[in-house]
Structures are given as C-alpha cells and as structure tokens.
C-alpha cells in the first residue's frame, strides 16, 4: 500500500470517507458487477456504498467466468438486475416483492453494457430501470446523460424503491462528504467550474 492511501478503500486519505460512513441497516443483499477499469478509479462511488452496506458484495470482471458463482446462485435465489433494456420494467411502479437480491453493474455506460451483453444469464433475470430518478448530486465525474446517477446514488434510489423503510441517509451523507472532500483538493478555479455546472443542471 502506497503512503497516504487508506488501507481499507485504497484511495488517498484526503478524499477517503471511511471515517464518516455509517451502516445502512436492513438492506437486501446486493451484488455489484464491477468492470476492471473502475477498480482503481479515485472518483468511483462504489467504495462509499461498500462501506455503508454490509450486505454488498463486489465481483470484478467482464466475462461469465468472473461471475460463475453468482450465475449459479441466481438459478436458486430470486434476483433482479438494475439495467435498462428493451424489456426492463420501471422500478418505481413494478412489484418487486418477490425479489430477494439485487444486481447492479458498475462502469461507464459502454462498459456496463458490455458486461450485460457478455453474460446471457443476466438476460434470464427480470430487469429494471429508473423511470423518474432524482437529479445527481455527484458533479465531480462527467455523466453521458443528464439523468445519470453514480453507482452509490443508484443503489440508494434502488433501496428507496424496493425497501421504503430502509434509511439511506447514511449513504447519502457519505456521498455529500465525498464530493466536498474531492472539491477541496481542487484549485479554486476548477471548483468554481464544477459549481457552475451544478447550477446549470
């Protein structure tokens, strides 16, 4: 481990939020399929979700062999996939009571799509998308669309839809602190640019 990096999340201690992450209780099991290129990305938000959600498990890879254990499990346990497809259902209005565990894909849109298309077993599971997602507050990283959410934000919104009694406040607070700490490491002119982008959204 290089000097100055958090031994738990692997990012620099100046932007680490492990010290403020609190547990989100009673959330259902979550599986995150993470593209390998996202692992070392300092702007990734999965580390925040991982610190707040003890039932979250991350599998790194792209091809089926990386997810063989989960694929086999999905044949026994009712699972849903958060990924927009031609047959996906809107999360906000769908009955998800029969689903026990959830799968989320972490990566850019192009890489997430490649993971989905490379794993036909995912297409055998019910797929869901967000119809009316909230505006993203994670303005540090560029998004391909105005209604895009970071991985942690998507997980928080998913939980709010399928488990309304689950308090996602700890996850959202940790995300807000992450943004503030990342902005604090930037020159003032760069901070102003991000603030301006946020006002325009």
From TrEMBL:
Residues 2-187 form the DTW domain. Keywords: S-adenosyl-L-methionine, Transferase, tRNA processing. Its EC number is 2.5.1.25. The keyword Ion transport does not apply. GO terms for biological process: tRNA processing. GO terms for molecular function: tRNA-uridine aminocarboxypropyltransferase activity. It holds the Pfam family DTW. PANTHER family: TRNA-URIDINE AMINOCARBOXYPROPYLTRANSFERASE 2. Belongs to the TDD superfamily. DTWD2 family. This is tRNA-uridine aminocarboxypropyltransferase. It comes from Marinobacter nanhaiticus D15-8W. The lineage of its organism: Bacteria, Pseudomonadati, Pseudomonadota, Gammaproteobacteria, Pseudomonadales.
């Amino acid at each position: 481990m290089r000097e100055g990096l958090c031994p738990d999340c692997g990012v620099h201690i100046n932007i680490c939020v492990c010290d403020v992450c609190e547990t989100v209780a009673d959330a259902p099991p979550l599986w995150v399929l993470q593209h390998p290129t996202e692992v070392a990305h300092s702007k990734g938000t999965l580390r925040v979700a991982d610190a707040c959600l003890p039932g979250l498990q991350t599998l790194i890879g792209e091809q089926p062999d990386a997810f063989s254990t989960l694929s086999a499990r999905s044949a026994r346990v009712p699972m849903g996939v958060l990924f927009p497809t031609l047959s996906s259902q809107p999360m906000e209005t769908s009955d998800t009571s029969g689903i026990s565990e959830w799968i989320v894909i972490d990566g850019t849109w192009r890489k997430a799509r490649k993971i989905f298309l490379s794993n036909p077993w995912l297409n055998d599971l019910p797929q869901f998308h967000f119809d009316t997602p909230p505006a993203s507050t994670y303005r540090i990283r560029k998004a391909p669309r105005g209604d895009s959410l970071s991985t942690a934000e998507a997980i928080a919104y998913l939980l709010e839809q399928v488990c309304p009694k689950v308090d996602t406040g700890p996850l959202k607070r940790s995300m807000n602190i992450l943004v503030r700490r990342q902005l604090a490491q930037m020159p003032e002119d760069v901070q102003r640019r991000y603030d301006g982008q946020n006002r325009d959204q």
